[in-house]
Amino acid sequence: MGNVAYHVVAILVGAVVGVLGSGFHVGVEKLTAAWPAFLDTGLGLDGFPLYAAAALVAAAMTVVSLWLVRRFAPEASGSGVPEIEGAMEGLREVHWHRVLPVKFVAGLLSLSSGMVLGREGPTIHIGASVAKAASDLMKWSGEDMRGLLAAGGAAGLAAAFNAPLAAVLFVIEETRRQFPYSSRTYIAVVLASIASAIVTEYLTGNRPYMLLEATAIPYGWLPAFALLGLILGGAGFVFNRTLVWSLDHVRRFGMRSSFYIFPTFVGLTVGVLMFVRPEATQGGELLAVQLTKESLPLGMLAFVVLLRFVMTMASYSTGVAGGIFAPILALATTIGLCYGTTLDLFFDLPYQAHTTFAIAAMGGLFAATIGAPLVGMVLVLELTSAYAVLVPVMICAIFAHMAFLALGGRPIYEILLERTLAIEAEARAAGSR
């Protein structure tokens, strides 16, 4: 089997993932807007009846999403990135025939309910599942199959954020231990990402998903971005620790009672927040752009940080299908705006400095939590098209990563994979007694 055939398959995988990823993206956007509009303007509800109806709808979507995952594809829970890394390492199996439909439908329901989850995890998992289907069809295994899994995952990230370069770098940096690097597999990853990006741009438009205007910052202000990076390194450490703590406690609660009680409560809460505090719901890409234009007071920004942190932990801990990339970026934007607003109390900041702090913070928190600073830098620039602030973004990201490592932090997907393997080992041990 030659390189040409392998690369043609990678291109086809990327194109299919572009179609599925675009459909998933548009579906989430449409459904997220449709059901609140139906309750509000369609049925004419207001006040308590509106909040009660919204709570019930969001809770129903959450419970159905979780039921689909637990009933048909338990590995479709959460982001899916740890599953792909485990499969590339030979520790997990990608059951594409059940993951594909469940991840798509369950992810559509959970994200559209308003939960603070991102679409990038599901699209990466969907992409790798398409790649596994192609590998099975071609009867490929070993390095060829693992390389195509990486290509499919990269295509999924390219489709989620229209960020093909960051998608390639994600494979190289994030899966550096698992990726079977060779010119053959590397080219396959690039081709799949390009194909996915072309299809995505054709179907949804060629535009940055988080377009932000920013101008170059005077060099004298660069140390402020290093300090912001150090703060975000600590925030990333707390984020990862809290996420795992939340997952463990919710799981123990579910084992003692029911795995549906906590998700139902979160769904009810999210439904009300969709109307009362919409900034505390959804993935947050649009929120990040909106906040940079509103000039909110420091107290309100700090409140949004707290709300989104709590709701991210609660949403991901339910076990429904959904990622954490977008929530991390939105949380980071708000932290960056808090930082800039605080400095503004004491200094005369340069023009558009608040926006620049917000953009740099996205790269910083991503670099800390995910453990991939280069991906964080490039992803943020592709998302915002703010190439004029490249140097501040790089400084913030690398200092955040350094601080995170100094605190003893480890990449969140690495931790989540180990946790999954430990839970399964524990279940097998209990079953053999």
TrEMBL record:
Transmembrane segments: 7-28, 48-69, 148-172, 184-204, 216-239, 259-276, 296-318, 324-347, 359-381, 387-407
Keyword annotations of the record: Chloride, Ion transport, Membrane, Transmembrane, Transmembrane helix, Transport
Main location per the UniProt record: membrane
InterPro entries: Cl-channel_core (IPR014743), ClC (IPR001807)
Cellular-component GO terms for this entry: plasma membrane
Pfam families named among the record's database cross-references: Voltage_CLC (PF00654)
Subcellular location: Membrane
One MF term in the entry's GO annotations: voltage-gated chloride channel activity
Protein name: Chloride channel protein
Organism (species): Ancylobacter dichloromethanicus
Gene: yadQ
